[in-house]
Amino acid sequence: MAQLLRRRIYNYTVLTLDKEGSIPDFEIFSAAAIRVRDGKEVATYLCPDFPTDAKKRTEEVNRLRTFIGNDMVITCDISGMTPVMESLYMNSIEAFFTNATLDLLTVEEEVEKSVPDPKPFHERMSHFRRVVEPLERARGMREIYEEDAKALFGYQEGYPYWLCSLPYEEERYMAKRLPSKRKKFWKALLCWMVGCHYFYLGHPRRNILYLLTLGGCFLWMLSDLYRLPVLLDVENGRIAAEVYKNAPKVNRPSIIRWAPYTGEDSADEGGRRGLMSGLMHFFR
Fold first, then answer.
1. Which of 161, 160, 222 is nearest to 197 (CA)?
2. Same domain? 42 vs 176
């Protein structure tokens, strides 16, 4: 079973094979694939009658390989599909099937354990299993994955990318605690209009200085409008690091010590802070 990536994938290819038998004796009746970019369908591949003639099969496998490219491949039967694709590539075009793969059933199982009411997901999956047409099955798989990925990892939007590198237990801990803490751009913008965006971003002292100087005679105010997305990312990164400190730690089998950046300086990285660093720390 493939390892479930702890993030939402936006660019991938959905592949479905209508086959019978297993390695080494198998027969492919049809194949369909959908190329997805930014979560949307951009191209399709369909072979309703997979050729049995060696020459025509080689041409068709080359066409399929060109369509898939180096994409992550999402399928519903990873244990059966991967060996078939490896054999198909090797016997038809003498190439290796090296694409990373993701099993949609694995994602679905985790969603059903994570959401309060899994009934809609059960019904949707039951409807999907009744679809016969290959291309429609692939489209159904894309829709299911997009909904599942949003349900599992939608909270990561606006937070640092290192969240997707966490082990399962730590990532699920963050998923429960981060959604309500995320600072939103529209709220920060409204606060900026009334001069209290630093209060919203967790820097009360800096906001007091901001108000006392009238937004730096409006220069500070204008620069903050330009910097607001960056300020928001920095604050959300700080929030994620603070929440992560209380996450249940998992032993990682690595000789490299891994930890997300928390915004704190290590003792061997620069000695004493200068005057400007001290002032910025005070007005945080």
1. 222
2. no
Question: pTM to 2 decimals?
Answer: 0.76
Whole-number Å distance between alpha carbons of 78 and 99: 12
- The two tokens of residue 166 are 């966490």
- Choose one of 126, 155, 184: the last residue of a domain: 155
Q: Verify that 151 and 35 share a domain, yes or no.
A: yes
- Per the structure, the count of domains in the chain is 2
Residue 14, φ and ψ in degrees, nearest 5: -95, 130
What count of other Cβ atoms lies within 10 Å of the Cβ of residue 200? Answer: 19
Q: In degrees, to the nearest 5, what angle opens at C-alpha 52 toward C-alphas 47 and 53?
A: 115
> Up-side HSE of residue 80: CA atoms within 13 Å toward CB?
16
Q: Which of 29-38, 115-124, 182-191, 206-215 has the lowest mean pLDDT?
A: 115-124
In angstroms, rounded to a whole number, what is the distance separating the alpha carbons of residues 88 and 97?
9
Please tell me what DSSP assigns to residue 28.
Answer: E
Instruction: Give dist(CA 204, CA 191) in Å, integer.
Output: 13
And the tokens for 115?
């959401």
Gap between the Cα atoms of 27 and 110, Å rounded: 32
Nearest to residue 177, comparing CAs of 123, 124, 241?
241
C-beta separation of 207 from 198 below 8 A: yes
**Which residues, including other chains, have CB under 8 Å from residue 23's CB and lie 6 or more apart?**
83, 84, 87
Whether 1 is covered by a domain: the verdict is: no
Residue 212 token pair = 């006392």
3-state secondary structure of 15: strand
Verify that 26 and 103 share a domain, yes or no. yes
Residue owning tokens 């369908």: 41
What is the structure's pLDDT at 266?
Answer: 46
Lowest mean pLDDT among 93-102, 109-118, 145-154: 109-118
Both tokens of 221, joined, read 């105010």
